[in-house]
Amino acid sequence: MSFTLPDLPYAYDALKPFLSKETLEYHHDKHHEAYVTKANDLLEKSGLEDKSLEDVVKLSHGKNVQLFNNAAQHFNHVEYWKSMKPNGGGKIPGTLEKALIESFGSVDKMKKELGEAATSQFGSGWAWLAVKDEKVFIQKTSDAENPLIFGAKPLLAMDVWEHTYYIDYRNQRPNYVKAFMESLVNWDYAAENYDKAIKLFQKAA
Ligand SMILES: [Fe+2]
After folding, report:
1. Distance (Å) from CA 140 to ligand 1 centroid
2. Whole-number Å distance between alpha carbons of 146 and 72
C-alpha cells in the first residue's frame, strides 16, 4: 500500500481570518505533501509495506527514525485538519463533555491545560487531547511524536510547528493557540474519536 494526501475537509479560505488561504496552501500542499511523499519512499523495503498507517507509526517508532518521522507527521496532519472547522469552538457534545468533567474536573480546566500545553511545547511539536483506558488526558509531544506511541488514541490534534502559524501570527504562538481554542476547534470530531476509542478499549478489556 502507499499513503495518499487527503484533500482538506474544507476550502483553503474557509478558516479565515484565523488561518489564511496562504497558510493552508503552504501547510497542506507543501509541508503535508512532502511528508506523504517521503513516507512512501521510505516505506518501500521497510518490511512494513502491508501495514496500516497507524501500525507503521507504532512499529517504526524507535526503529526507523526517518520513516517514523514522515509517517507520523502524515498521521498527525490528517488528524489536525479534521480537528478544525469553520465556525469552530462552541458546545462540546454530551458524552465527551461528561468524560472531560470526570477527567479534569471541568471543561474550562481542560481548555486551560490544553492551551498551556500548546503554548509551552518547546520548539516544534504538537498538543493533544487523547484517551487511554477511558481516561482523557492532555499531552504535548516533540517533533513527530504522538499519543499512538504511548498506547493512547488521539481525540484532537493541535499543530504547533512554526509553519502552522508564522504567516498569520509571526512569532506569536499564543495568539494562534487562542484562535484554535476559541474559533477553530472541532469538538464534534473529538467526540466522534472518543466514542470510537472507548468502544475499542472496552472490547480489549
Ligand atoms: Fe504542520
Report:
1. 15
2. 7
3-state secondary structure (DSSP) of residue 176: helix
C-alpha 1 to ligand 1 mean position (Å) = 24
Spatial contact of 9 and 77, defined as CB atoms under 8 Å apart: no
Residue 98 grid coordinates: 461528561
Ligand 1 centroid to residue 76 C-alpha, Å: 8
pLDDT tens by residue, 140-195: 999 999 999 999 999 999 999 999 999 999 999 999 999 999 999 999 999 999 99
Q: Ligand 1 centroid vs 124 CA: distance in angstroms?
A: 9
Query: Which amino acid belongs to residue 166?
Result: Y
131: CA distance to ligand 1 center in Å?
22
Q: How far apart are CA 160 and CA 83, in angstroms?
A: 13
Beta strands, E only, 18-159: 125-132, 135-142, 153-159
- Residue 78 CA to ligand 1 center (angstroms) comes to 10
Whether 174 contacts 135, CB under 8 Å: no
Q: What is the tens place of the pLDDT at every residue in 52-93?
A: 999 999 999 999 999 999 999 999 999 999 999 999 999 999
